[in-house]
Write a structure and sequence with these properties.
This protein is an alpha/beta fold and 390 residues long. It has two domains: 85 residues; 264 residues, Rossmann fold. It is built from twelve helices and twelve strands. Strands 6-11-10-7-12 form a five-stranded mixed beta barrel. A two-stranded antiparallel ribbon has the order 8-9. Helix 1 packs antiparallel against helix 4 and helix 3 packs antiparallel against helix 4. The longest helix is centred in the first third of the chain and has 22 residues. It is globular, with a radius of gyration of 22 Å. About 4% of the residues have low confidence.
Amino acid sequence: MAASKKYFRNLIVKSKIGEALAEMMKTAEEIGQDDLSNDLLLLSSRYNRNEAQLNRGIIDTRDYDLAINRISNTLNEYVDQLEIKEEEETSPVGSTTVVPTPPDRFVALPAEKPKKIKYVEKAFREIESYSNQGLALIVTATDTETSALHQKMTPLPNEEGLVEVKKDNATYFLGKLGNFAIANVECGTMGSTSSMGSILTVSNAINALHPKFALMVGVAFGIDGAKQNIGDILVSDHILPYEIQRVGNDKIVWRGSKPEASNTLRNNFKNLRGWEYKLPNGEEANLELCDILSGEKLIDNLNLRDQLVEEFQTAKGGEMEGAGLYAACQDKDVAWILIKSICDFADGNKGSGKKEKQALAIETALHACLHVFNKKHVFEGLGLEALLEA
């Protein structure tokens, strides 16, 4: 009998990539999936090449880890393609227990035509005065998040639209969010460690703009569909970078730090008195200061999610860019915080209503941010003054 998908995913989580590749190739051959077997053979060659390059010192550990993360993500996709009966994956031998799926309480936002945004292109030297006066850096990871943020922004004083400038390999958009000047930058790719991931994106933005603080806003996965709603907001108390591990023969030991977000920013969002958001399903959106998982894997697998939650029991959700935000800001001594709203539960159903769920999630996250940025003195402790009308 072919091994189960759960078994293969456990091997991947334990970083036993070579073993997983070998056994999956054997399984694919046994059940007649020749095309998948060939794909696995090519992936195995990539894996062996990276192992050899690391041993010879051709690549450093950072590039090696990045390559292995990509191979692991691809391998997880191949697990899904294995034509193994679902019972083999989810039902232990002799077990008749069925875990019920929580009811889907999601209701989409009403369709609404977005307003047309006017952009004004300028040379970087023309916006340096805004940087000198002080601004906040708002980081997004996807076009959906960026577009939603721009809908909430308004032009800076004496500007006809949102200011667009280019510096090196990045594009920045300047405007106001509530009462404060902000600059938005979008990561070129999801995750933290690639050449266009959050570490380098945020680090370069800090060097260019010298912001008073950095806030990343976007979407995340939740861990409990029975207790959490699509649109509930996770505010980082700590980031839990789960990729940093010591892999032994018998167990995996997490060796990462548990970085804390800025005390001032945490306090601002923890004390959101008067803020409320009614979700389309009639329930109130919840905002929680909590621990958030962060890693390179795009998780849409219930077994993998539950294994992470078992290892990191304080986590209430997870995402892919927060570890990079922390690393860049820590290096530059810049205050930071992560504001992300739940758009799925990493349970294999990420693609169901994805666009609508992400739209609701980013809307609630920005609604909470705007509530804070509409205040006048909330960022004085970080050296950022409000741009009040004369």
